[in-house]
């Protein structure tokens, strides 16, 4: 099995797990549904390792990761409502028109020259 088919297979499995999670959650309030790290990662379409790492680094895809619930020192869960709210904010930011996005600050030429000679 080559790496492309292995990635596709994992992508398909993740999509199936995501569908199952969302199907089971349809009748329950989303703030009462707790997901494991793997389940939350499946909903976000990222790896469980990346989500786990974000708990330590406090950064996920260049933003604050979704909040988690530590039931014990080794049992971590995510509220489905927190995962969906985080994902909606990411999608909202990503689909915002370019003119509405904040522009990065850059130093003007005169400021750059003054800093260079200082």
From TrEMBL:
This is MerR family transcriptional regulator. Keywords: Plasmid. Residues 93-118 are annotated as: Disordered. Residues 107-118 have a biased composition (Polar residues).
């Amino acid at each position: 099995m080559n790496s492309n088919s292995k990635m596709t297979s994992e992508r398909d499995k993740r999509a199936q797990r995501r569908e199952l999670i969302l199907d089971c959650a349809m009748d329950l309030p989303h703030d009462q549904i707790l997901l494991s790290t793997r389940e939350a990662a499946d909903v976000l379409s990222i790896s469980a390792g990346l989500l786990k790492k974000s708990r330590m680094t406090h950064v996920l895809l260049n933003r604050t990761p979704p909040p988690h619930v530590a039931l014990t020192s080794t049992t971590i869960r995510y509220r489905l409502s927190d995962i969906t709210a985080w994902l909606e904010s990411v999608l909202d930011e990503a689909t915002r028109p370019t003119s509405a996005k904040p522009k990065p600050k850059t130093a003007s030429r005169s400021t750059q020259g003054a800093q260079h000679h200082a």
